[in-house]
Design a protein that fits this description.
Largest sheet: 3 strands, antiparallel
Strand order of the largest sheet: 2-1-3
Number of strands: 3
Strand content: 15-25%
Number of helices: 2
Helix content: 25-40%
């Protein structure tokens, strides 16, 4: 079984969010996501969820 590298985990999951409408990935500050200041690049919606870890 492969070991999880901290650098790879940070690159894949740190501050990454997915648009609930169009599934586009976006890297942003969680505080700004909660405040609703960030919009999706593709569909311009403001609803996001964190990336699910595998």
């Amino acid at each position: 079984m492969a070991t999880k590298l901290p650098a790879a985990q940070a690159r894949l999951y740190h501050n990454m969010f997915v648009c609930k409408h169009c599934k586009a990935k976006l890297r942003a500050d969680p505080k700004k996501i909660i405040e609703g200041k960030i919009r999706c690049r593709k569909c311009l919606k403001k609803v996001f969820r964190p990336v699910r870890k595998k």
